[in-house]
Each structure stands twice: as C-alpha cells, then as structure tokens.
Amino acid sequence: MIVTQGLTRDFDGRVAVDQLDLEVRAGEVFGLLGPNGAGKTTTVRMLTALIAPTAGTATVAGFRLGEEDTEIRRRVGILTESPGLYERLPVQLNLEIFAQLYEVPAEDLAPRVERYLRMLDLWERRKDPAGTLSKGMKQKLAIARALLHEPQVLFLDEPTASLDPEAARTVHDFIQDRRAEGRTIVLCTHNLAEADRLCNRIAVFKQQLIRLDTPENLRRALYGRAVRIKLREAQPAHLKAVRTLPFVKEVVQMGEELAVHLDDPEAMNPTLVRTLVQAGADVQFVREQEHTLEEVYLDLVREEEEAGR
Amino acid sequence: MNWNKMRIVIKKEWADTFRNKLVFFTLIFLPLLLTLLPLVNLYVMQVLPADEVSETSDVGEASEELGPFEPYIEMLGVSPSDPEGVRQVIMVGMASIYMVIFFMIPLMIPTMIATDSIVSEKVTKSLEPLLATPISVTELLVAKALAAAGPAVAVTWLCYALYGGIAALFVPGPVLGVILGLDWIVGILLLSPLMALLAVGIGIIVSSRVNDTRSAQQISGLVVLPLMLVFIPMFMGLFTLTAGVFLIGAAILAVLDVGVIRIATALFRRETILTRWR
Known about the structure:
The complex is a heterodimer.
Chain A (H helix, E strand, L loop, with lengths): L1 E10 L2 E11 L4 E5 L6 H8 L7 E6 L2 E2 L4 H7 E4 L11 H11 L4 H14 L15 H13 L5 E5 L7 H16 L3 E5 L3 H7 L2 E6 L1 E6 L1 H9 L1 E7 L4 H8 L6 E5 L2 E6 L2 H14 L4 E6 L4 H16 L1
Parallel strand pairs in A: 3-8, 3-9, 6-7, 7-8
Antiparallel strand pairs in A: 1-2, 1-4, 4-5, 9-10, 11-13, 11-14, 12-13
Helix pairs in contact in A: 3-4
Chain B lengths: L2 H15 L3 H27 L2 H4 L5 H8 L4 H6 L6 H16 L2 H24 L2 H5 L5 H31 L5 H7 L2 H26 L5 H12 L7 H4 L7 H25 L2 H6 L3
Helix pairs in contact in B: 1-9, 2-6, 2-7, 2-9, 6-10, 7-9, 7-11, 7-12, 9-11, 11-12, 11-14
C-alpha cells in the first residue's frame, strides 16, 4: 500500500528523514515509533503529499508521490497531532465541510456524517460548537473527519495523546475496528503499550530506520525467549542443575526466581522443571519472561545513539 | 480551478467569520456608523439657518473661511457673499471629503476577515487538515481572498447606495450631484474591489508572520491605512477627484495588487505554511 525508497527530507541542511525504505502492507496497522524529532511527523507529511521529499521516491495507494499528489490526497486520511477543528462551527458542519472537500457524493454526505457521529458517540453534540467539546471528543471528531471519505490509508499522529484512559480505549477500539475492515493504518505514537496492542508491525525510527518487525519478533530478536521460575527457596545446587541442561543458554538468579534463557520453552519446560524437582527444588510458578515494547524501544534507540557516537 | 470546492471554503469562511462577534460588529456596525454620521452632519448643515453655517458676508473673508473648499465656489457658480451659496459650497466640500469613507471600508473589513481567518486557523492548527484535502492551494487562497474581499465590497457598495439614497431625501441638488456623480460612482465601483484585494493580500502576508489576531489586524492596519494619505491633497483643495484621477488610481492599485498577491501566493504554499509559518 505504501512503498518508500530512499525517502529523504532535509530542512536547510538539517536532515529530518534520511534514506527511508519502508513497505506498508494493505490492511495492516503499521507503527512508526521514534523519539521526539525522529522525523515521524515529517514522514507522515511527505506520505500525505503535504510536503515534498528532497530525495527518494514513494508510492501511496498506487500513486507516485510528487506526480500524483491530488490522487494521493483523495485516498488518504490524516489525523494531525492536534485536532485542528473549526472551533466556532458546529460539530456536524465541521464534518460536512470536509466531506464535501473530499468529494463525498452529495447523496451519501448526510448519512455518512451521521454514521460517524453516532459511531463515535458525538451525535447528541452535533449542533454544539466544536470548541465546547472535551479533549477526547475533539480527538474523536478529528478521527471521524479523517475517515469520512473512507480513505484507503489512514495516518494517525498521536491519536491518544492527552486523552484519559476511557477516551483512549474508545479510540483503540475504533482503530481495531478499522483494521478489521481491512483499512491500512499508519500509527505514530509515543505510547508503546498502544503500539504493542494495535500494530501488526513496527518501525523503530530515528531519521533512519533502526528496526522493522512485528512487536513479538522485535522482542525476540533483542532478548530471545526466557522463562521465570519461582522457587520456595533458591539454592546454588538448583542453579547448577539447570546449567547442566544442554538447551539452556543462560541462567540468572534474581532473588527466589531463576531467569532461564532458552529457545523453545513449550518443548523444554517439562525437562527443566523435572530437573529442578530432582535437584530438590520446590517449584511454585513457571511463566514466560515478558519484555515490554518499551524496553525493546529504549534499548534500540540507546544502541542507535551509541552507534552514532 | 474547482469552483465547487472554492464555494465550500467560502461558505465555511463566512460561517466561521460571522460567528466572531468582533468581526461581525466591524462588518455591519462600523460601516453603518461611518455612513450615517456624515449624513447626520449634512442634515444639520442643511437645516441650520444659512447665516449660521457661514459667519461672514464679506467676500474676501468668506473665501478665506472656505479654505480648501474655495474651488467649489466657481464650480457651483455661487457668490461668496450669498449665505445660501456658501452653505452649498461647504456641504459639497464636506460631502466630497466624506466620500473617502467608502475607500476606508474596503480597506478595513477585508483586513479584519483575512487576518481572523488565517490567524485563527494557525492557532487552532486547522490549516494542516485542510491542506491535506484534494483542494489546490490556489483554490484555497482565491476562496479565502474572495471570502474576505466579497463582503467588504458588497458592504461598501450597499453603504454607498444607502448614503446616496438617504442624502437624496434632503441635500440640495449640487451636493447630491457630487455624491451620486459619475466621478464617484466610477471611483467606488472600480477602486473598492482593488482596495479590498490589496487589504486581503496584506492581511495574508502579515498573518503568515503573526500568531495573534489582534496584532495581525493592528499591523495590517498600519500598512493599509497610510494609503488614505493620498487623499490629503484633496482635503487641502489641491485637486479634485474626477473619474480620470480614479482611473489612474485604479491602474496604480492594480499594479500594487499584483505585487502583493504575488507575495501572498508565494507564502501560501503547502510546504511554506507547514514548515515556515510561525
């Protein structure tokens, strides 16, 4: 759905995006993660034909960036960092204006506006000025505006920034529903739990692409798999017994817990537990060691910074 | 150019702008006030006894007293010793000065509307979603310019019609001859759209650098209102504004318009708005 090759943008010599190669597949939620100033917004602006790249090429929904920009704009929807609503105008009129600018057929306009307002629980507020809505409602209105023309690709820049958990949950559910409809979504976020929950693949990015994979593969690539075994009373003999097993890569004792790194916990855990029991250990719990996407992200960005130094 | 999209933007601009009470006040109340006050003044001059309008019956003194209006003595063919004639001279002179109001309106109103429209879009960051739609920046700029200039020109012409219509009820023929004379009809019909366009262009240029509506309006006012200085020689009686003078003025304004609109167009690019506007 989106392919970029060597996409680059500099602002008077300051490189914001450098040689970016990406492929976003149709129907996936694609996360763009990166620290502030990493170039996420610039990338989104380039891919929505708002600003031009200084080098490189891209196609969005089958149209070439820089040559078929109007066609691209017809087929993408964008939720910008701030909702950017006409605060003095009623909620419904805000949507109607954009529906017309996005060339929604006249006969579909009213039903479509109503459908999205109802979907996002804004119908009852349709006559109120947009400026009187709460932050969460404004964000939902901006999302509705981005979707009105049923775009093939939806760019969401920080969709839940500054929302309370309930409003964020509504937005998450809404994104998941759109994914279920088969829409392609590019999600820029600092909320790593959100990215973990919603994204099929994630690009960790700081001017250049650092890593691109599924959240699960990103974790595994960085840390491998590990199990945590809680013992009633961990002894050095237990540690020694585990180390004798050929499939164990590393064992670390952390209080009464052992962190055992191995490739295939499903197959190897029974042997592991049996060995510990034979060594006299009282096994209380066995669970897979989880690494949050936050740990993965911070380590990747740190590695990149160290490599840069 | 897609006129349908421009119509949508104009509709949006008006819906948004007219909800701003200050702009609405400026658009309706101020022009009305500027139109009605001179009428009141002319009416008072008309109903006052003629000898109270001029304090002297001496020809020399009267000429001196009339100052910049002196050329109208010959134009109207009246005697400076005739109080009724002097009253007419003064009324014609005042009526001519008041006509300048109809050049102030198309300078003030578009500045208010254009700066309110662009600065409020900057503040609420609503330009980015708008620029992400399939509208071209030229369509957007033209629509915004028409939305700002259109009401100003309409209000100017309406106020002029109102001024002429009410004045016709009580002013003497020579005074009405000035107000509804061909010279001023040509001047107002021709110059007000050009002045409105100039004000819009200046409003856009200033708005691109300022993030506060009031500052944008004040700065635009400082740029635009000195244009009124060109009328000072007329107030001093150095020349009379005729259709010919207005045609020359229109040509100069058209050149200025082209220059200002070019600068505004260069500033009003997707790229520039998103990356350079502050």
